[in-house]
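Because showing beats explaining, we think one record worth quoting, sequence and backbone structure tokens together, and here it is:
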Amino acid sequence: MQSILKKQDFFSLALSCLLFAPAVSAEPLPGLPTDKASLEGLGAALFFDENLSKNRSMSCATCHAAETGFSDPRDNGFEEPVSHAVSLGDDGESIGDRNAPPAGYAAFSPDFHKNKDGLWVGGQFWDGREKDLAGQAGGPPLNPIEMGMPDKASVVARLMENEEYLNGFKLLFGKDIFKNADKAYDAMTKAIAAFEKTDFFAPFDSRYDRYLRGEVKFTKQEELGRTLFFSQQFTNCNICHQLHETPGATKETFSNYQYFNIGVPVNQEVRKANGSKDGTIDHGLLANPKVSGKNWDGKFKTPSLRNVAITGPYMHNGIFKDLKTVVQFYNRYNSLKKSAQINPETGKDWGKPEVPQTLDAKELTTGPALDEKRINALVAFMKTLTDKRYEHLLEN
């Protein structure tokens, strides 16, 4: 224990350099675990460690930056509209097919399972292919177009280069933990998952949370947006984006973690950039090895709306840049206006659903069409879901 504690000052300084660039803030972000002798503190160190990627250039925090709501703020080097839609890998050239989902509040997604109604719920990633946070944490290091490590043993070898890790892992998992690479790798994922379960990822201190506590008042526009959002008569928002049965419940994550096909079109520009073959289809939930049945084809997990205003671009393939565009996309299903059938970002029609046969038409067509005032009000309300430490980003 003594040898670990003596090294904490150096490690804290290194971690601070990674976390708190002067352009963001000189003050530590609230809730960051700093005790490296704890599971959460060890997980924090691992989360920000670039040495766990093949070229030592990429960490979990690269695609889930603490300064930007645990989303990827980087330009991947490709031209618009690809530049921010998908993340760049450790090799400096590979990009995938899906947008990196923000890691904030991810701990509230339940383990992947079927509910009493026979619907798939929870899990991690857009398709729920990992049951829980630890499973998710173990994916990127071994993904060839992400962190690119060849196997678990190679990752563990990198861990063993760090004396603090050697001490910390033995303290928390037993002195023989490094004798088995699989067990050491699992221990790493458990530590990262423990970190992601802390208040650092889920402070619940947005204007919405403060509104519920009576600490702030909403503007008329925000109040209209809140009323519309939770209404089952005027919008369909809370069909998918409400976890608790009672509207206005505390610690609402704004997702029921179920899977839907909302008709998102193919991001053709991303497909061209990443070299996908013609006819490639992202089958979403059906790509999960635990799932079978064509009725699940093309469905994706409903994301939390926490910090949604600052974590674009949107949808599983990053096809929409602006939050208002997302609301307009949903409105297309209910509006008869020709203008509603045009994507304002491209000036063209929205495009066909990638998997049209499983479109959740009932949910999408619930409620009346929205006028401009109500669309703007919903956007204003969703901005109130931004954590306090990110509110300055709303100005941009």
The chain has 15 helices and six strands. The first helix runs from residue 2 to 6. The chain has two domains: 2-64+103-122+132-196, 207-395.
